[in-house]
Amino acid sequence: MAAVEGGVPTRIMVAVNESTIKGYPHASISSMGAFDWTLKKIIRSNTSGFKILLIHVQVPDEDGFDDMDSIFASPEDFKRMKHRDKIRGLHLLEYFVHKCHEIGVACEAWVKKGDPKEVICFEAKRVQPDFIVVGSRGLNPFQKVFVGTVSEFCIKHADCPVIAIKRSTAQTPQDPVDD
Amino acid sequence: MAAVEGGVPTRIMVAVNESTIKGYPHASISSMGAFDWTLKKIIRSNTSGFKILLIHVQVPDEDGFDDMDSIFASPEDFKRMKHRDKIRGLHLLEYFVHKCHEIGVACEAWVKKGDPKEVICFEAKRVQPDFIVVGSRGLNPFQKVFVGTVSEFCIKHADCPVIAIKRSTAQTPQDPVDD
Protein backbone atom coordinates (compact mmCIF):
# COMPACT_ATOMS: atom_id res chain seq x y z
CA MET A 1 0.00 0.00 0.00
CA ALA A 2 1.51 3.31 -1.09
CA ALA A 3 0.14 6.79 -1.63
CA VAL A 4 -1.47 7.02 -5.06
CA GLU A 5 0.31 8.57 -8.04
CA GLY A 6 -2.23 9.57 -10.65
CA GLY A 7 -4.99 7.00 -11.15
CA VAL A 8 -8.69 7.55 -10.55
CA PRO A 9 -9.32 10.83 -8.69
CA THR A 10 -10.89 10.81 -5.23
CA ARG A 11 -14.56 11.71 -5.68
CA ILE A 12 -15.88 14.04 -2.98
CA MET A 13 -19.60 14.73 -2.80
CA VAL A 14 -20.24 18.21 -1.37
CA ALA A 15 -23.83 19.02 -0.42
CA VAL A 16 -24.70 22.70 -0.83
CA ASN A 17 -27.82 24.73 -0.11
CA GLU A 18 -29.15 28.27 -0.17
CA SER A 19 -28.81 30.64 2.73
CA THR A 20 -31.88 31.28 4.84
CA ILE A 21 -30.75 34.79 5.66
CA LYS A 22 -29.16 36.34 2.64
CA GLY A 23 -31.24 36.74 -0.46
CA TYR A 24 -31.10 34.75 -3.65
CA PRO A 25 -28.78 33.29 -4.93
CA HIS A 26 -26.37 33.14 -1.99
CA ALA A 27 -25.04 29.87 -0.61
CA SER A 28 -25.56 29.10 3.08
CA ILE A 29 -22.76 29.90 5.51
CA SER A 30 -22.27 26.24 6.38
CA SER A 31 -22.16 24.96 2.80
CA MET A 32 -19.68 27.65 1.79
CA GLY A 33 -17.60 26.70 4.83
CA ALA A 34 -17.69 23.01 3.91
CA PHE A 35 -16.71 23.73 0.31
CA ASP A 36 -13.85 26.09 1.25
CA TRP A 37 -12.60 23.63 3.88
CA THR A 38 -12.51 20.84 1.26
CA LEU A 39 -10.40 22.96 -1.09
CA LYS A 40 -8.05 24.24 1.59
CA LYS A 41 -7.54 21.15 3.74
CA ILE A 42 -8.06 18.19 1.40
CA ILE A 43 -7.53 19.15 -2.23
CA ARG A 44 -4.81 21.77 -1.59
CA SER A 45 -2.56 22.01 -4.66
CA ASN A 46 -3.42 18.49 -5.88
CA THR A 47 -6.27 19.61 -8.16
CA SER A 48 -5.90 16.69 -10.57
CA GLY A 49 -6.26 14.16 -7.74
CA PHE A 50 -9.86 15.04 -6.92
CA LYS A 51 -13.29 15.47 -8.44
CA ILE A 52 -16.03 17.40 -6.66
CA LEU A 53 -19.61 16.21 -7.00
CA LEU A 54 -21.85 19.12 -6.04
CA ILE A 55 -25.39 18.26 -5.06
CA HIS A 56 -28.10 20.76 -4.20
CA VAL A 57 -31.37 19.42 -2.85
CA GLN A 58 -34.34 21.77 -3.15
CA VAL A 59 -37.07 21.39 -0.56
CA PRO A 60 -40.46 21.54 -2.29
CA ASP A 61 -42.21 24.69 -1.06
CA GLU A 62 -45.36 23.01 0.23
CA ASP A 63 -46.47 25.93 2.38
CA GLY A 64 -46.25 28.31 -0.53
CA PHE A 65 -45.25 31.15 1.81
CA ASP A 66 -42.64 32.29 -0.69
CA ASP A 67 -45.40 32.97 -3.14
CA MET A 68 -47.85 34.75 -0.89
CA ASP A 69 -47.56 37.92 -2.94
CA SER A 70 -48.02 36.16 -6.24
CA ILE A 71 -51.32 35.59 -8.06
CA PHE A 72 -51.70 32.34 -9.92
CA ALA A 73 -54.26 32.78 -12.60
CA SER A 74 -53.16 30.37 -15.28
CA PRO A 75 -51.21 27.16 -15.82
CA GLU A 76 -48.50 29.40 -17.21
CA ASP A 77 -48.02 30.99 -13.77
CA PHE A 78 -47.21 27.60 -12.25
CA LYS A 79 -44.84 26.78 -15.04
CA ARG A 80 -43.10 30.11 -14.43
CA MET A 81 -42.84 29.36 -10.69
CA LYS A 82 -41.22 25.98 -11.36
CA HIS A 83 -38.93 27.59 -13.86
CA ARG A 84 -37.89 30.20 -11.27
CA ASP A 85 -37.07 27.46 -8.71
CA LYS A 86 -34.94 25.72 -11.30
CA ILE A 87 -33.09 28.97 -12.05
CA ARG A 88 -32.41 29.55 -8.33
CA GLY A 89 -30.89 26.08 -7.98
CA LEU A 90 -28.77 26.53 -11.07
CA HIS A 91 -27.54 29.92 -9.88
CA LEU A 92 -26.43 28.40 -6.59
CA LEU A 93 -24.53 25.60 -8.31
CA GLU A 94 -23.04 28.06 -10.79
CA TYR A 95 -21.28 29.81 -7.90
CA PHE A 96 -19.54 26.59 -6.79
CA VAL A 97 -18.84 25.29 -10.30
CA HIS A 98 -17.26 28.64 -11.14
CA LYS A 99 -14.93 28.32 -8.10
CA CYS A 100 -13.96 24.78 -9.14
CA HIS A 101 -13.09 25.96 -12.64
CA GLU A 102 -11.08 28.89 -11.29
CA ILE A 103 -8.98 26.50 -9.21
CA GLY A 104 -8.82 23.81 -11.88
CA VAL A 105 -10.51 20.95 -10.07
CA ALA A 106 -12.95 18.76 -12.01
CA CYS A 107 -16.57 18.89 -10.92
CA GLU A 108 -20.11 17.79 -11.65
CA ALA A 109 -23.19 19.47 -10.26
CA TRP A 110 -26.86 18.64 -10.15
CA VAL A 111 -30.13 19.61 -8.47
CA LYS A 112 -32.65 17.24 -6.90
CA LYS A 113 -35.93 17.84 -5.13
CA GLY A 114 -36.94 16.30 -1.83
CA ASP A 115 -35.88 15.91 1.79
CA PRO A 116 -32.17 16.91 1.73
CA LYS A 117 -30.93 14.28 4.19
CA GLU A 118 -32.67 11.44 2.39
CA VAL A 119 -31.83 12.61 -1.10
CA ILE A 120 -28.13 13.06 -0.21
CA CYS A 121 -27.95 9.48 1.08
CA PHE A 122 -29.86 8.18 -1.93
CA GLU A 123 -27.63 10.05 -4.38
CA ALA A 124 -24.52 8.84 -2.52
CA LYS A 125 -25.69 5.28 -3.03
CA ARG A 126 -26.25 6.00 -6.71
CA VAL A 127 -23.02 7.86 -7.62
CA GLN A 128 -20.77 6.21 -4.97
CA PRO A 129 -18.45 9.06 -3.95
CA ASP A 130 -15.41 8.21 -1.82
CA PHE A 131 -16.83 10.43 0.90
CA ILE A 132 -19.33 13.21 1.55
CA VAL A 133 -18.57 16.67 2.96
CA VAL A 134 -21.54 18.42 4.49
CA GLY A 135 -21.78 21.68 6.39
CA SER A 136 -23.25 21.73 9.86
CA ARG A 137 -24.71 24.61 11.87
CA GLY A 138 -23.45 23.02 15.07
CA LEU A 139 -26.83 23.39 16.80
CA ASN A 140 -27.24 22.51 20.46
CA PRO A 141 -29.34 19.45 21.40
CA PHE A 142 -32.41 21.58 22.16
CA GLN A 143 -32.32 23.31 18.78
CA LYS A 144 -31.78 19.99 17.02
CA VAL A 145 -35.07 18.58 18.30
CA PHE A 146 -37.02 21.24 16.45
CA VAL A 147 -34.84 21.75 13.42
CA GLY A 148 -33.31 18.34 12.65
CA THR A 149 -29.85 18.01 11.23
CA VAL A 150 -28.85 16.78 7.82
CA SER A 151 -25.27 16.00 8.83
CA GLU A 152 -26.14 13.63 11.69
CA PHE A 153 -28.58 11.72 9.52
CA CYS A 154 -26.00 11.36 6.74
CA ILE A 155 -23.27 10.22 9.15
CA LYS A 156 -25.61 7.47 10.36
CA HIS A 157 -27.20 6.41 7.11
CA ALA A 158 -24.92 7.14 4.15
CA ASP A 159 -23.12 4.21 2.55
CA CYS A 160 -19.79 6.07 2.52
CA PRO A 161 -17.78 8.08 5.08
CA VAL A 162 -19.18 11.53 5.91
CA ILE A 163 -17.31 14.51 7.32
CA ALA A 164 -19.38 17.31 8.85
CA ILE A 165 -17.79 20.76 8.92
CA LYS A 166 -19.17 23.02 11.64
CA ARG A 167 -19.44 26.79 11.21
CA SER A 168 -16.92 28.72 13.25
CA THR A 169 -18.27 30.76 16.15
CA ALA A 170 -17.38 33.93 14.27
CA GLN A 171 -19.62 32.90 11.38
CA THR A 172 -22.66 31.94 13.45
CA PRO A 173 -25.53 34.39 12.90
CA GLN A 174 -27.58 35.85 15.77
CA ASP A 175 -30.14 33.06 15.41
CA PRO A 176 -28.04 29.89 15.06
CA VAL A 177 -30.88 28.18 13.20
CA ASP A 178 -30.28 30.67 10.38
CA ASP A 179 -27.60 29.72 7.92
CA MET B 1 -10.14 31.49 -1.78
CA ALA B 2 -8.03 29.17 -3.94
CA ALA B 3 -6.61 25.71 -3.44
CA VAL B 4 -3.42 25.92 -1.39
CA GLU B 5 0.04 25.82 -2.97
CA GLY B 6 2.61 24.83 -0.36
CA GLY B 7 2.01 26.49 3.01
CA VAL B 8 1.34 24.75 6.30
CA PRO B 9 0.50 21.06 5.74
CA THR B 10 -2.93 19.70 6.67
CA ARG B 11 -2.57 17.88 9.99
CA ILE B 12 -4.56 14.66 10.18
CA MET B 13 -4.85 12.86 13.51
CA VAL B 14 -5.25 9.13 12.97
CA ALA B 15 -6.24 7.07 16.01
CA VAL B 16 -4.83 3.53 15.95
CA ASN B 17 -5.20 0.54 18.26
CA GLU B 18 -4.19 -3.09 18.61
CA SER B 19 -6.21 -5.93 17.19
CA THR B 20 -8.30 -7.96 19.60
CA ILE B 21 -7.95 -11.07 17.46
CA LYS B 22 -4.48 -11.25 16.02
CA GLY B 23 -1.55 -11.47 18.37
CA TYR B 24 0.84 -8.70 19.31
CA PRO B 25 1.84 -6.35 17.75
CA HIS B 26 -0.80 -6.28 15.01
CA ALA B 27 -2.95 -3.22 14.36
CA SER B 28 -6.72 -3.63 14.45
CA ILE B 29 -8.55 -4.15 11.16
CA SER B 30 -10.42 -0.86 11.51
CA SER B 31 -7.39 1.28 12.33
CA MET B 32 -5.41 -0.20 9.43
CA GLY B 33 -8.40 0.50 7.21
CA ALA B 34 -8.62 4.12 8.42
CA PHE B 35 -4.88 4.66 7.89
CA ASP B 36 -4.83 3.10 4.41
CA TRP B 37 -7.95 5.06 3.42
CA THR B 38 -6.27 8.32 4.48
CA LEU B 39 -3.23 7.62 2.33
CA LYS B 40 -5.18 6.43 -0.68
CA LYS B 41 -8.10 8.87 -0.74
CA ILE B 42 -6.80 12.05 0.93
CA ILE B 43 -3.01 12.27 0.79
CA ARG B 44 -2.62 10.49 -2.58
CA SER B 45 0.58 11.74 -4.26
CA ASN B 46 0.62 15.05 -2.33
CA THR B 47 2.87 13.76 0.48
CA SER B 48 4.32 17.18 1.30
CA GLY B 49 0.86 18.66 1.81
CA PHE B 50 0.03 16.57 4.87
CA LYS B 51 1.30 15.54 8.27
CA ILE B 52 -0.07 12.48 10.07
CA LEU B 53 -0.44 12.60 13.86
CA LEU B 54 -0.67 9.01 15.07
CA ILE B 55 -2.19 8.50 18.48
CA HIS B 56 -2.51 5.18 20.27
CA VAL B 57 -4.48 5.08 23.51
CA GLN B 58 -3.77 2.12 25.74
CA VAL B 59 -6.58 0.99 28.01
CA PRO B 60 -5.19 0.29 31.50
CA ASP B 61 -5.62 -3.44 32.12
CA GLU B 62 -7.61 -3.13 35.33
CA ASP B 63 -8.91 -6.67 35.30
CA GLY B 64 -5.44 -8.07 34.92
CA PHE B 65 -6.76 -10.97 32.83
CA ASP B 66 -3.85 -10.60 30.44
CA ASP B 67 -1.52 -11.45 33.29
CA MET B 68 -3.40 -14.39 34.77
CA ASP B 69 -0.52 -16.71 34.01
CA SER B 70 2.09 -14.38 35.49
CA ILE B 71 3.35 -14.41 39.07
CA PHE B 72 4.13 -11.07 40.65
CA ALA B 73 6.58 -11.58 43.45
CA SER B 74 8.53 -8.35 43.48
CA PRO B 75 8.27 -4.65 42.58
CA GLU B 76 10.50 -5.57 39.63
CA ASP B 77 7.73 -7.74 38.17
CA PHE B 78 5.38 -4.75 38.02
CA LYS B 79 8.04 -2.61 36.47
CA ARG B 80 8.59 -5.30 33.85
CA MET B 81 4.85 -5.48 33.14
CA LYS B 82 4.64 -1.75 32.60
CA HIS B 83 7.72 -1.89 30.41
CA ARG B 84 6.11 -4.63 28.32
CA ASP B 85 2.94 -2.53 27.81
CA LYS B 86 5.07 0.36 26.66
CA ILE B 87 6.93 -1.85 24.18
CA ARG B 88 3.64 -3.15 22.77
CA GLY B 89 2.42 0.42 22.17
CA LEU B 90 5.68 1.44 20.55
CA HIS B 91 5.66 -1.63 18.29
CA LEU B 92 2.17 -0.74 17.10
CA LEU B 93 3.16 2.85 16.29
CA GLU B 94 6.37 1.68 14.65
CA TYR B 95 4.29 -0.16 12.06
CA PHE B 96 2.46 3.03 11.04
CA VAL B 97 5.49 5.33 11.31
CA HIS B 98 7.40 2.92 9.06
CA LYS B 99 4.63 3.14 6.44
CA CYS B 100 4.64 6.96 6.61
CA HIS B 101 8.41 7.05 6.06
CA GLU B 102 8.14 4.59 3.16
CA ILE B 103 5.64 6.88 1.44
CA GLY B 104 7.41 10.08 2.43
CA VAL B 105 4.70 11.75 4.48
CA ALA B 106 5.69 13.54 7.70
CA CYS B 107 4.36 12.07 10.94
CA GLU B 108 4.43 12.22 14.71
CA ALA B 109 3.32 9.38 16.97
CA TRP B 110 2.63 9.03 20.65
CA VAL B 111 1.03 6.73 23.23
CA LYS B 112 -1.41 7.77 25.96
CA LYS B 113 -3.18 5.76 28.62
CA GLY B 114 -6.87 6.04 29.44
CA ASP B 115 -10.32 5.76 27.91
CA PRO B 116 -9.64 5.96 24.13
CA LYS B 117 -12.66 8.12 23.21
CA GLU B 118 -11.96 10.68 25.92
CA VAL B 119 -8.21 10.77 25.40
CA ILE B 120 -8.59 11.20 21.63
CA CYS B 121 -10.87 14.23 22.16
CA PHE B 122 -8.56 15.65 24.83
CA GLU B 123 -5.48 15.24 22.64
CA ALA B 124 -7.31 16.77 19.67
CA LYS B 125 -8.01 19.83 21.80
CA ARG B 126 -4.34 19.95 22.76
CA VAL B 127 -2.63 19.44 19.37
CA GLN B 128 -5.45 20.93 17.21
CA PRO B 129 -5.34 18.75 14.09
CA ASP B 130 -7.35 19.86 11.05
CA PHE B 131 -9.41 16.71 11.36
CA ILE B 132 -9.43 13.22 12.88
CA VAL B 133 -9.67 9.92 11.04
CA VAL B 134 -10.87 7.03 13.15
CA GLY B 135 -11.73 3.46 12.22
CA SER B 136 -15.15 2.09 13.02
CA ARG B 137 -16.34 -1.50 13.32
CA GLY B 138 -19.75 -0.52 11.96
CA LEU B 139 -21.58 -2.28 14.79
CA ASN B 140 -25.37 -2.54 14.79
CA PRO B 141 -27.36 -0.58 17.41
CA PHE B 142 -27.74 -3.65 19.64
CA GLN B 143 -23.99 -4.35 19.70
CA LYS B 144 -23.25 -0.67 20.36
CA VAL B 145 -25.19 -0.66 23.64
CA PHE B 146 -22.81 -3.21 25.11
CA VAL B 147 -19.57 -2.26 23.42
CA GLY B 148 -19.75 1.50 22.98
CA THR B 149 -18.15 3.20 20.02
CA VAL B 150 -15.17 5.50 19.96
CA SER B 151 -16.05 7.01 16.59
CA GLU B 152 -19.55 8.21 17.55
CA PHE B 153 -18.27 9.81 20.74
CA CYS B 154 -15.51 11.62 18.84
CA ILE B 155 -17.90 12.84 16.13
CA LYS B 156 -20.08 14.35 18.86
CA HIS B 157 -17.43 15.71 21.21
CA ALA B 158 -14.20 16.48 19.36
CA ASP B 159 -13.39 20.13 18.67
CA CYS B 160 -12.49 19.40 15.04
CA PRO B 161 -14.15 17.50 12.18
CA VAL B 162 -14.04 13.70 12.45
CA ILE B 163 -14.33 11.14 9.68
CA ALA B 164 -15.15 7.56 10.64
CA ILE B 165 -14.05 4.84 8.23
CA LYS B 166 -16.10 1.66 8.50
CA ARG B 167 -14.60 -1.76 7.85
CA SER B 168 -15.74 -3.33 4.60
CA THR B 169 -18.01 -6.35 4.86
CA ALA B 170 -15.20 -8.52 3.51
CA GLN B 171 -12.96 -7.49 6.41
CA THR B 172 -15.50 -8.05 9.19
CA PRO B 173 -14.50 -11.00 11.38
CA GLN B 174 -16.97 -13.70 12.46
CA ASP B 175 -17.69 -11.81 15.68
CA PRO B 176 -18.12 -8.18 14.57
CA VAL B 177 -17.11 -6.97 18.01
CA ASP B 178 -13.64 -8.32 17.29
CA ASP B 179 -11.33 -6.02 15.41
Automatic annotation (TrEMBL), chains A, B:
Residue intervals of the UspA domain: 27-166
CDD domains associated with the record: USP_At3g01520-like (cd23659)
InterPro entries: At3g01520-like_plant, Rossmann-like_a/b/a_fold, Universal_stress_UspA, UspA
Highest taxon of source: Eukaryota
Pfam families, per database record: Usp
Name the record gives this protein: UspA domain-containing protein
